[in-house]
Write a structure and sequence with these properties.
Helices cover 64% and strands 0% of the residues. The chain is mostly helical. The chain has one domain.
């Protein structure tokens, strides 16, 4: 895997939201960080497709 320049972020959320996020990541057998990166990539790809229309 290529080396990445990673940074830490802080997100404020309720305990229920945190639990839901962890469960979503667990269902996909990935970390919460990986889940967020996946969502971000999907969103960027969607925006790119929309811009091409």
């Amino acid at each position: 895997m290529a080396e990445r320049n990673l940074v830490n972020i802080t997100i404020t959320m309720t305990k229920e939201e945190r639990k839901a996020l962890k469960l979503m990541a667990l269902e996909e057998d990935i970390s919460v960080s990986a889940l967020l990166r996946k969502w971000l990539q999907e969103k960027l790809e969607l925006e790119k497709k929309e811009a091409e229309k």
